[in-house]
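User:
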Amino acid sequence: MKNKVKVLRETRQWSQGDLAKALGVSRQTVISIEKERYNPSLELAFSMAALFDCPIEAIFIPESKKKGDDVG
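Assistant: Predicted structure:
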């Protein structure tokens, strides 16, 4: 899943280790999420949203949300 985790992390000048520690996960988990190799659990996504103080939708972009997919 596309995401903005790296941008949000770097904006706060946090290392991957800093983010991992704040979330209670391994640094490898953060790396995998940033490289879009791993989709976090819903619980972890909510934790990230709370930590970054933004909605989940501001962090993660579902693959189905591509240009031209708007209904209406």
